[in-house]
Write a structure and sequence with these properties.
Helix content: 10-25%
Number of domains: 2
Structural class: alpha/beta
Number of helices: 6
Strand order of the largest sheet: 5-9-13-17-20-23-27-31-34-36-39
Strand content: 25-35%
Oligomer: single chain
Number of strands: 42
Distance between the termini: 97 Å
Shape: elongated
Radius of gyration: 31 Å
Length: about 475
């Protein structure tokens, strides 16, 4: 028999049971009246009785909490959707009320998300069918769990769970937007989350948009290893990677728009070794690399990768052996003023690489062994005012290389053993005033580089001995 709210009377009894939380440890007035007082002869009989009572109550409460949590875990797997939802809210409430059992509550909630989810209904299923109802009930429970977790991670949460471990290993975050009247809002929302413990998304899959905008990674160990971002937008806009370690090793961003605009890397180790960005747009516009280590040992295939106005002011940023294939890579107006930035062994193939308007004002930037093939490499209007920029063994074969309008006013720029072949090398309108631009060690020119018409080459420019100005 059902009650007016379509909940069976048996379900109602179980809901009332699970929402009856274990009572907190309290002492009676008689037990708590006298605090233990140290006397010259030791503890008094009253203080000893009080300590014994406290220990007994604490042991009773711990036993009740364990039993209640076991019951809650079983209710979260109940056939009744109403019972499952009630259990979610009860476990979240218990986590708020009892910090000593908070981690256990979070572990139980995360286990719900890791469990196999109900299969989605076929497009021709009637919405009154059993499969449809089971799918919607399962999604309602899972999204209630996710809402409880993310709501307690935000900066404005009344009670924060940010210092607790979270295990989302192999979880599928799925909005099923193609199915009408889905039970969720369509976006996994970790915006403004504070993560300062062990958090794992390893092997998870996001089939819709996800937001970590404004998230604080402060001392956390966070793993996105092997994660698949299959569609939608992925936002880390304004996120702060302040300490700890964040790994995107082997992650795959397929066709998604990936946004790290305004993110700050100020002390964490961020590892993208083996990650792949395929066919989408990746933006680090306005991002600041101020400290720590960021490793882009990954592949960018198609699409566009942009670091518009990014600032490399400290720490180490590595694009070691990174592959940029068939798309545009741009660092327009970026500032390299304090970091060690490495493009050693990077491959840029079939697209445009732009450092237009970039400022090299104190950083050490290395393109050792980088390959620029069948495209355009542009440093038009770039400012080289301090620091060191090296291109040893770089291969520009088949590419046009443009330094037109660049300002060389203090930096050390060297092209030892570099190869220029098959494309134009343009230094017209470049300004040479201080520092050193050393082209004397370049291995080969298929086309001599273009400079302005000089009577005498600038003192800060060294050319190959075999070079004869046209």
């Amino acid at each position: 028999m059902l009650s007016p709210d379509n909940t069976s009377y048996d379900d109602g009894a179980r809901i009332r049971h699970i929402t009856d939380l274990p009572e907190k440890v309290t002492l009676s007035p008689e037990q708590s009246a006298d605090k233990p007082q140290r006397s010259s002869a030791g503890w008094t009989p009253a203080s000893r009785r009080r300590i014994v009572a406290e220990r007994r109550l604490a042991a009773d409460y711990a036993r009740q909490a364990r039993e209640w949590l076991a019951e809650a875990a079983s209710q979260l797997a109940d056939e009744s959707a109403a019972v499952r939802l009630a259990a979610v809210h009860a476990v979240a409430l218990f986590a708020d009320e009892d910090p000593t059992h908070r981690q256990a509550c979070i572990d139980i909630l995360c286990a719900v998300l890791r469990a196999a989810h109900a299969p989605g209904p076929d497009s021709d299923d009637r919405r009154s069918s059993e499969q449809w109802r089971a799918w919607r009930a399962d999604r309602a429970c899972r999204h209630a769990v996710l809402g409880a977790l993310t709501g307690h991670l935000r900066a404005d949460a009344a009670i924060s769970w940010g210092g607790c471990d979270l295990d989302f290993t192999d979880v599928v975050f799925d909005s099923s937007a193609s199915v009408a009247d889905s039970a969720d809002g369509g976006t996994a929302d970790f915006a403004d989350a504070g993560l300062s413990a062990e958090v794992s998304f390893a092997g998870a899959e996001f089939t819709a948009s996800v937001s970590f905008a404004g998230a604080q990674f402060a001392g956390a160990t966070v793993s996105f290893a092997g994660v698949r971002f299959a569609a939608g937008d992925v936002s880390f806009a304004g996120a702060n990677f302040a300490a700890g370690e964040v790994s995107f090793a082997g992650a795959r961003f397929a066709g998604a728009k990936v946004n790290f605009a305004g993110a700050t890397f100020s002390g964490a180790r961020v590892n993208l070794r083996g990650a792949e960005f395929a066919g989408g747009e990746v933006s680090f516009a306005g991002a600041e690399f101020a400290d720590g280590r960021v490793s882009f040992y990954c592949r960018f295939t198609g699409g566009a990768v942009g670091f518009l106005g990014s600032r490399f002011t400290g720490g180490t940023v590595g694009f070691l052996d990174a592959e940029f294939t068939g798309g545009a890579v741009s660092f327009p107006d970026a500032e390299f003023s304090g970091s060690a930035v490495s493009f050693v062994g990077a491959e840029f193939g079939g697209g445009e690489v732009s450092f237009v308007g970039a400022q090299f004002a104190g950083a050490i930037v290395s393109f050792a062994g980088a390959k620029f093939a069948r495209g355009m490499v542009s440093f038009i209007g770039a400012d080289f005012t301090a620091g060191v920029v090296r291109f040893p063994w770089a291969d520009f074969s088949g590419s046009e290389v443009r330094f037109a309008g660049a300002n060389f006013d203090g930096a050390q720029v060297a092209f030892d053993r570099a190869k220029f072949g098959g494309g134009e090398v343009d230094f017209t309108s470049a300004h040479f005033s201080r520092g050193l631009v050393d082209l004397s060690g370049a291995l080969a020119w298929s086309v001599p580089p273009s400079f302005d018409a000089w009577t005498t080459a600038p003192a800060s420019l060294r050319l190959p001995a075999r070079y004869e100005q046209a």
